[in-house]
Amino acid sequence: MNTMPRPRFLGLGSLVPILVLAAATQAVPTISDAVLGETGQSTAEVSTEALRRILTEKTALVLDARPFREYAVSHIPGAVNVAPKPGVPMSMYVSDVAEIDRLVHERKDTAIVLYCNGPYCGKSKRLAAELVAAGYTKVRRYQLGIPVWRALGGVTQIEPDGLRNVLANDRTAVVVDVREPPERQAGAFPNAQPIPRSAVLEGKDVGEIKRAKDDGRLPMEDHNTRLVVIGGAVPARYVAEALAREAFHNVSYFAGSLEEARAALKP
């Protein structure tokens, strides 16, 4: 015998509020809401979505807990980096709490979010433990780190020192120049692939990015290839985010001027 309750039909005036309430109270978590969920940790984690909100609303200091060179090559936009703790071997790298003290003017109640190289990296945990021991009361970790940030479509920012290092040492890296044709003609950037910002459309597999996939400007046979986008902070970030949505998951943008990018070419 079927014991399922029979449906009740309500007037439209009653049904609409019920549907809205259901949508509001039964939101399904997504992968962006996930955390690693390790037990026995002294500090809580934040999800990717929470970190995005923190960065947008500037409600916490976001600290990249990795060495400066890693930070310079690619870091989450809005994050800062401090010097390492003196006398510590690289295998146990940890940032210097004294430098953080200076950065926050010794405000121990400063909200701080740490990140590093993901679930298997111990740098955020070590720094979190030292901050808690030093009296900091609002320390959290984005333990999923740079790998998951990228995997979920997040772009990174590259600093001048990082750009210099990449251009000198990574022969597989692809530089994307988002300036318009007249600007590029006035001053080309060596070996850069042109993808003008004005031709990059909303959506997937459309506009100039689709054409760049088909004509060889983008590395379609290795989506791990490092892509560095130059041409001005705002347009470069826009195109970098569009490339990340096309499954290129090692995309960074340079927020400096073209002159600063050119300076990175010098030994």
Describe the structure.
- There is one protein chain.
- The chain has 267 residues and is α/β, with parallel strands linked by helices.
- It folds into two domains: 32-151, Oxidized Rhodanese, domain 1 (3-Layer(aba) Sandwich), CATH 3.40.250.10; 156-263, 3-Layer(aba) Sandwich (Oxidized Rhodanese, domain 1).
- It is built from eleven helices and nine strands.
- The chain has helices at 12-25, 48-57, 68-73, 97-103, 123-133, 145-151, 160-169, 181-186, 207-215, 233-244, 258-263, and strands at residues 44-45, 61-64, 112-115, 139-142, 156-158, 174-177, 193-194, 227-230, 251-254.
- A five-stranded parallel β-sheet has the order 5-9-8-6-7. A four-stranded parallel β-sheet has the order 1-4-3-2, with helices on both faces.
- Helix 5 (123-133) links the parallel strand 3 (112-115) and strand 4.
- The longest helix has 14 residues, at 12-25.
- The protein is globular.
- Mean pLDDT is 91; it is low at 1-25.
How far the N terminus sits from the C terminus, by CA atoms, comes to: 82 Å
CATH C-level class of the largest domain is Alpha Beta
Number of domains: 2
Topology as a string of helices (H) and strands (E): HEHEHHEHEHEHEHEHEHEH
Portion of residues in beta strands equals 5-15%
Number of E strands: 9
Shape: globular
Describe the main β-sheet briefly.
Answer: 5 strands, parallel
Mean pLDDT: 91
Please identify which CATH superfamily of the largest domain we are dealing with: Rhodanese-like domain
Structural class: alpha/beta
* CATH topology descriptor of the largest domain: Oxidized Rhodanese, domain 1
Low-confidence stretches: 1-25
- Counting DSSP H or I runs of 4 or more residues, the number of helices is 11
**How large is the radius of gyration?**
23 Å
Biggest sheet strand order reads 5-9-8-6-7
The CATH architecture term of the largest domain is: 3-Layer(aba) Sandwich
Question: How much helical structure, as a percent, in the residues?
Answer: 25-40%
